[in-house]
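Lecture 7 notes: from sequence to structure.

We start with a single chain of 130 residues. Read the sequence below before looking at the structure.
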Amino acid sequence: MKYLIAMIMGLTLFVCAPAFATFDKVNAMQILTAATATGAGVRFKPQKALRSFILSGVTSSGVGAASVVIEVSNDGTNYITQDTLGLTLGTTITFDSGVFEQPYMYVRARVASISGTGASVNVWMGTGGK
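Now the structure, written as tokens:
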């Protein structure tokens, strides 16, 4: 699964990047792991400005929904919304993604809402560029 996510992150950065962007290296890391309740994850300090995000989620039975907000900050205390990713959850894994190129120092994922039996979500962040 980790290899699949890393490959998707690389392709998302490549396909969605502006034409002028070049990549020295693409790095991927999981920034939210099996979150089952609302709240913010820990902050990360990416080394590159171009970032892509993949949200995945699943339920143990039935259907559900999840909304995750990607937040950014320059001081690590005051965060603003950069993007909102949403999913309709089921017993098979579903995905949503987003890309942005902003030079914020810190990034975190915050689960705004989650519902469904045994619902959980994961967020991966890929970084690349010069």
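The chain has a mean pLDDT of 84. Keep this in mind for problem set 3.
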